[in-house]
Design goal:
Pfam families: MazE_antitoxin. The chain has a domain of 25 residues. 9% of the residues lie in helices and 23% in strands. The strands form two sheets. A two-stranded antiparallel ribbon has the order 1-2. The longest helix has 8 residues. It starts with 7 loop residues before the first strand and ends in a 31-residue tail after the last helix. The model has no long low-confidence stretch (mean pLDDT 79).
């Protein structure tokens, strides 16, 4: 893991802004993708590297990942004879 940096959140108009250290090498106006995680942490990367990040995830799942299936795909029968424009 690389160096750790502190960042400060401040109010900017009706939004919150995150002030990042210059040492991170980001440029003014550069776009980043910010992803919140369930544990309260965040990941972010440069928008122009989004494809590279996505492709880096390929093959990173463990061998047994979803070995037992998703267990959430069972669905009841549907009535396809109904007009799709009618309210349910």
């Amino acid at each position: 893991m690389g160096e750790k940096y502190k960042a400060k959140i401040f109010k900017s108009g009706n939004s919150l802004a995150l002030r990042l250290p210059k040492a991170l090498g980001l440029e003014e106006g550069e776009e980043v993708t910010l992803v919140p995680h369930d544990d309260g942490s965040f990941s972010f990367w440069r928008q122009d590297r989004a494809r590279e990040v996505l492709m880096g995830l390929y093959g990173s799942m463990s061998t047994g990942f979803m070995a037992d299936g998703r267990d959430d795909t069972a669905q009841g029968e549907r009535d396809w004879s109904r007009d799709a424009t009618q309210a349910a």
